[in-house]
Amino acid sequence: AQKITQTQPGMFVQEKEAVTLDCTYDTSDPSYGLFWYKQPSSGEMIFLIYQGSYDQQNATEGRYSLNFQKARKSANLVISASQLGDSAMYFCAMRELNTGNQFYFGTGTSLTVIP
Amino acid sequence: DTAVSQTPKYLVTQMGNDKSIKCEQNLGHDTMYWYKQDSKKFLKIMFSYNNKELIINETVPNRFSPKSPDKAHLNLHINSLELGDSAVYFCASSQVGRGLTEAFFGQGTRLTVV
User: Fold this and answer.
1) Distances (CA, A) of B105 to A33, A46, B46
2) Is B87's Cβ below 8 Å from some Cβ in A?
3) pLDDT, average across residues A54-68
4) Would you tell me which residues 40-59 of chain B have a C-beta closer than 8 angstroms to some C-beta of chain A?
5) How far apart are CA B113 and CA B86, in angstroms?
6) For A7-36, what is each residue's pLDDT tens digit?
7) What's the pLDDT at B96?
8) Does A56 touch chain B (CB under 8 A)?
9) What parts of chain B have a pLDDT lower than 50?
10) Which among A44, A96, A100 is the nearest to B108, CB-wise?
11) Out of A9, A19, A22, A65, which could bridge A60 as a Cys pair, Cβ 3.0 to 4.6 Å?
12) Number of other CB atoms surrounding residue A73 within 10 Å
């Protein structure tokens, strides 16, 4: 089974609007971390936000927030007030405590912000 | 002061050649990785080293050989390059044992085999 599933290959959002990028995960480890990375067209991988499995509150970092629904095993990324510079690939990833060395990545979502 | 640096950034070479990609991290992390990103942007783990010891060795051709002289370096050597090896290769590092912290990535090496 896929550890991380991103079902949206491509998304469009109007500038200044909010957008949600979906991510579901599969693990039996009670201790895990969920991550979102941004990959702009220049190619580098930029860490955005982290959510731990025991965190009671949803993580937020500036315009990024993570909508963590543990029972549904989803960790959606919400970008508020989209900017043209947000156009990029976005990857959801998971790391399990018991297999702590490996990061499992989803297939990514390509986000395009429309002016 | 780049946290994870890999060289070269671009590599164009002919089929059959042998090439190496170097990676160094100055974060004091104990774990380093090599990922391959194909043309569809899928990121696939290749290798993981923890304190110079091979931890993960996914199903990759044995033409790919990682070498970790110390825990700050993880180099990737590729023998007898094939057209299908063309991809972007990312080095990354993280710390294991201090919680589930993020991985830091190098800028990637775009390998083109002609």
Assistant:
1) 17, 8, 14
2) no
3) 96
4) 40-43, 45, 48, 50, 55-56
5) 5
6) 999 999 999 999 999 999 999 999 999 999
7) 79
8) no
9) none
10) A44
11) A65
12) 15
Taking only the tens place, the pLDDT of each residue in A79-115 is: 999 999 999 999 999 999 887 678 999 999 999 999 9
Identify the burial level of B18 via C-beta atoms within 10 angstroms of its C-beta, where 0-12 means exposed, 13-18 middle and 19 or more buried.
exposed
Tokens, residue B112: 């083109």
pLDDT score for A100 = 62
Residue carrying structure tokens 């990312």: B90
Mention every residue, 6+ apart, whose C-beta is less than 8 A from residue A40: A46, A85, A87, A88, A89
The whole-angstrom separation of Cα B63 and Cα B81 is: 8
How is residue B9 written in tokens?
């950034």
- Dihedral angle sign, alpha carbons of residues A13, A86, A16, A35: positive
Token pair 């399990």 is found at A96
Q: How far is CA B62 from CA A111, B36, B78, B81, B111, in A?
A: 36, 15, 9, 12, 18
Please report the pLDDT score of residue B101 as a whole number.
Answer: 86
- Let me know how many helices (H) and strands (E) chain B has, helices first: 0, 11
Strand extents, DSSP E, B38-86: 43-50, 53-57, 64-70, 73-78
Q: State residue B68's pLDDT score.
A: 92
Report pLDDT for B80: 97
Q: How many contacts does A have with B, using Cβ atoms within 8 A?
A: 64
